[in-house]
Amino acid sequence: MMHTRLIIAGTVAAVSVAAAVVVVTQDRTTTVKRITDASASAPGVAWTLDAADSGLDGARFADPRAGSMYPYAAGSIRIDDHLLTIAAVVDSEGPSTEARLMSIDTASGALEWSVPATDLQSCAEQPIDDRLVCITPSYAEDPTLRTFDLATGESTDHGDTSDTFAMTVSDGHVYTTSGNLEDADVTVHRGTVDDLSADWTAPLQAWAGWEDQYADQLTVADGTGHFDVGGGFSTFDPETGDQIWASDVLDDCLSGSYRTLGDVSVGSRLDCDSYEPLGGIAYSRTGEILAQSTRDVSTYLTIDEPTDTSVPFVLGDTAYDRRTGEKRWSSQQLIIDRPADEYNEASTYGALQSVIGDVGVLSGERSMIGLDMNTGEQLWETESFSPVGTDGDMMIAVRESDLVAVDLHSGDEVWTAPLENFREGKRLSPESMVGGGGGAQILQSGATIVSLVPLPS
Question: Which segments constitute the Pyrrolo-quinoline quinone repeat domain (predicted)?
Fold first, then answer.
């Protein structure tokens, strides 16, 4: 049996890490620590947790939604007061060699339990009956749907899933896809953890290679189901399984890019002979064309959180109404043309990096620009930063060696804190943020999770 020591908020607790469930009891008293050299309004550190506290040498944090087998992106699932994450030992030549699913108390940072989780393909963001729902790969020795009790970490296997390759949970229902993805022979199911087809099964148009990302691409939200793989869109009715519309890269000369609020699907039109991009295109929930552009401009949104469907979406250099496709405004600021140099070919790409509320954040050559998404009017321009997450009307971002909060409507710096001072001797490099509100944020990197809360007045 291996032992590690977990230090949280000035208390020390012994944690036994073994093959079975580890349930940890700790002093949950927290003391908020002021960050040295931070601005007066900056939050303090409530608690920190390292991937090494899992007891696995060389482990890094990974997002349960993408499973434990190939843990290359940090992330967590937050369910009530539980923060669920994976600590895994990465193997550059194959699946992870060791992994543990961990539950952390969001108030204190106390490790509540830790269980072996080396073979998880993906986990759903929503629980069922206070249990996290995950799936192992169809090619595993004993493929199964596996649930974890949120209070104890105890796991239960729910039968054979050797024909299942994607899973999600929505409103108490389990949705899965099965069949042969490479042959475009796919079926979508809705049911329970013990009977995946209890409600219905239906054919679904979808195609992809087995090397593509597919396990976490099945989603159900806002009354619509999606399974977008292989560059195609596939939309279905989550109440019946009926196909609403679908696209195929080869048959429709269309490469799907992303979906945004209002179930707007954005992609690129392709030349049907050469499959070279011709321009952008956007579709409604039912597959009707909302808008088209003559220039192919790739836009990748780091954060896409518009207030509602009244905030337009962007295609090329123009903003369009999400509901009607009506043109709202245009701006050359939305596009960056980069000339060729001795190392790179000429390129054109979208400057819009994030949409938060009614503000669009553009990444320029040397600065960041805030636009009013309803009018296209420039609100502010400030020094460059890399967004991590949002907290109300603030964007939390990394700017050089600091974590900063930027007011979305003015561009002003609300507070700043040196990343090297969050932990003694360790520089924080946040990759993601698990929600934010009221001045409190939970930041996560591959090595560390940090909880920030407002300092007592």
Answer: 318-451
pTM assigned to the model: 0.89
Separation CA 135–CA 247 (nearest Å) = 27
Residue whose structure tokens are 């290679």 = 209
**β partners of residue 188:** 177, 202
404 token code pair? 């900063």
Backbone angles phi, psi at 333, to 5 degrees: -65, -20
- 137-174, pLDDT tens digit by residue? 988 889 999 999 999 999 999 989 999 999 999 999 99
Q: 139-148: per-residue pLDDT in tens?
A: 888 999 999 9
- CB count within 10 Å of CB 154 equals 15
Instruction: For residue 209, count other CB atoms closer than 10 A to its CB.
Output: 10
Terminal-to-terminal C-alpha distance of the chain: 45
Longest dimension (CA), the chain: 66
Tokens for 334? 């939305």
Round the average pLDDT of the chain to a whole number and report it: 90
- Within 8 A by CB and 6+ apart from 404, the residues are 385, 396, 397, 398, 413, 414, 415, 416, 417
**What DSSP letter does each residue of 379-421 carry, written as one string?**
EEEEE--EEEEEETTEEEEEETTEEEEEETTT--EEEEEEGGG
Classify 46 as helix, strand or coil: strand
Q: Give the CA radius of gyration of the chain.
A: 23
DSSP state of 250: H
